[in-house]
Amino acid sequence: MPRWPSIVGAAVFAASLAWGQEWKVAYAHAVNRETLVFTDLAFPTAERGIAVGVIRDAQGRDRQAIALLTSDGGAIWNQVTLEEVPLSVFFLDEARGWMVTAQGVWRTQDSGASWTRMSQPPERGKRLR
Predict the structure, then answer these.
(1) What does the DSSP assignment read for 94-128?
(2) Bridge partner residues of 13 (DSSP)
(3) Mean pLDDT of all residues in the chain?
(4) Half-sphere exposure of 41 (CA within 13 A, CB side)
(5) Number of H helices, E strands in the chain
(6) CA 73, 77, 78, 79: dihedral to nearest 10 degrees?
(7) Is the CB of residue 127 less than 8 Å from the CB of residue 90?
(8) Using CB atoms within 10 A of its CB, is residue 94 exposed (0-12), middle (13-18) or buried (19+)?
(9) CA neighbor of 27 nearest in space, from 6, 54, 57
(10) With contact defined as beta carbons under 8 Å apart, do 15 and 5 qualify?
(11) Helix, strand, coil % (nearest 5) of the chain?
(12) Where are the domains of the chain?
């Protein structure tokens, strides 16, 4: 039966194995006086997903950019540290994706486990490969 990932509030992911009838917390950011804010979510396949965002301190300042990765439809999420705060993500397939930040564009070829900054933006009209 498919899982239905859901964002609950700003710091909890829940997954449902019963078409939304029952929910289980799959990831929670529960650090005192911090907030996890998601900026984008992508599921290139039913099983593989990535949520990107930033952890903010009590004053609302960006403290750490992160990605949460799942390979089982949202039942378990693993945190990856990012170098820049993400604005959005796009995946061509399960492995190849791009992340846009205020400072540039990053590329992954391993489903978001690691990211490489693109040296310069592509010329207008060129494709990202």
Answers:
(1) SS-EEEEESS-EEEESSTTSS-EE-SSPPPTTPPP
(2) 7, 27
(3) 81
(4) 12
(5) 0, 11
(6) 120
(7) no
(8) middle
(9) 6
(10) yes
(11) 0, 50, 50
(12) 4-117
Interval 19-52: pLDDT, tens: 556 666 666 666 677 888 889 999 999 999 999 9
pLDDT tops 60 at residue 5: no
> For residue 1, what pLDDT is reported?
39
Residue 27 near residue 42 (C-beta atoms within 8 A): no
Length of the chain: 129
Q: In degrees, to the nearest 5, what angle opens at C-alpha 85 toward C-alphas 114 and 94? A: 40
Please check the confidence at residue 74 and state whether its pLDDT lies above 90.
no
Q: State how far the Cα of 90 lies from the Cα of 34, in Å rounded to an integer.
A: 27
pLDDT score of 3 more than 50 = no
The amino acid at residue 18 is: A
- Average pLDDT in the 67-95 region? 93
pLDDT of residue 76: 86
- Model confidence, pTM: 0.76
Burial bucket for residue 1 (CB in 10 Å: 0-12, 13-18, 19+): exposed
